[in-house]
Amino acid sequence: MSAKIVREQVISSALQLLDMLGMEGLTMRKLADMLDVQVPSLYWHFANKDALFEAVADTLLEQVATTTVVAEKWQEMFFRISCEVRQALLAHRDGARFLARTYPLSDNVARISSQMISSLKEAGADDRTATWGTFSTLYFVIGFTIEEQAFAEKRPDHNQSPDLQSLLLRYPVAALAWHQILQSDPDEGFHFGLKMSLQGLAQNLHTLEKERCEMSP
C-alpha cells in the first residue's frame, strides 16, 4: 500500500471520528484504534499530533475557491468564497472550531487567502488593507460558523429555564433580539453580517482612493 494512500486513510478516518464524536472525541488513541494500528504508526506520515490535525483541518477546505469566475469583482469573490468556507465547515461536526483550533498554514488556506488578497490589491488596496480585509472577513466566517454549529448542537430553549426566563423579563431588548435569533434562518444572519463587513471594506477602499487623489500633484 502506497504512502499516499495511507496518509489519506489517516485523514479520512480522523474526519469520520470528528463527525461521530466531535472535536473532543478526536484523539490519537481513538484514531489509532479505528485504523487498527498503534499510535506511533500515525507518526510515519506526520511529524507530530499538531501536524496531523493541521492536515485534517486543511482538508476541510480542499474544495473551497477551486474555480475561477471571469471578470468577478472583489465583492462577489469575497461573498462567494466566504459562503464556500462556511459550507465546507458546516459539512463536518465542529468543523469551524477545529479549524480555529489548529489554524493551519497550509496549501488550501494559502490558496484561498491569496485569491482574496490579490483581488483587493487589484481593486486598489495597499498591503495592509488587503491583508486585514481578507483575514477579518475570514475571521467573521469562522466565528459565525462556530456559533452556528454550537447553537445547532445544543439549541437553547428559553421556555425551559426559569432563570433565563427571569433574565429576559428584566432585559426586554435582549429578549426581543433573542427571539429574533431563534426564529431566524442562519443564512439570514450570516449574509447580513458578511454584507456589513464587505460594505465597510468597500468604504475603506474608497477612502484610500480619495486620499491618493488628494495627494496627487
TrEMBL record:
Alphabetized UniProt keyword annotations: DNA-binding, Repressor, Transcription, Transcription regulation
Classification via Gene3D superfamilies: Homeodomain-like, Tetracycline Repressor, domain 2
Domain of life: Bacteria
Domain annotation HTH tetR-type: ranges: 4-64
Annotation: DNA-binding region: 27-46
UniProt cross-references to Pfam families, sorted A to Z: TetR_C_1 (PF02909), TetR_N (PF00440)
InterPro entries (UniProt xref): DNA-bd_HTH_TetR-type_CS (IPR023772), Homeodomain-like_sf (IPR009057), HTH-type_TetR-like_transc_reg (IPR050109), HTH_TetR (IPR001647), Repressor_TetR_C (IPR004111), Tet_transcr_reg_TetR (IPR003012), Tet_transcr_reg_TetR-rel_C_sf (IPR036271)
Positions of transmembrane segments: none
Protein name: Transcriptional regulator
